[in-house]
């Protein structure tokens, strides 16, 4: 399984949905709070305009796009 990093913001509805989704699929992931990690925030801002942001292996996914996420993880 590819490593999953989930970049989130506090009080972000879609970030909470993404966490619930990953947990429901019993996937291990590393959650990074963008308000506490400026380097991660800069990396995400180069690629995406909002949160959540997923990094699956070396593939960036902007927003909670279940179709792209499932495809990258090989989930049907």
From TrEMBL:
Pfam families: Glutaredoxin (PF00462). Residues 4-58 form the Glutaredoxin domain. This is Glutaredoxin, NrdH/YruB family. It comes from Aliarcobacter trophiarum LMG 25534. Signal peptide: none annotated.
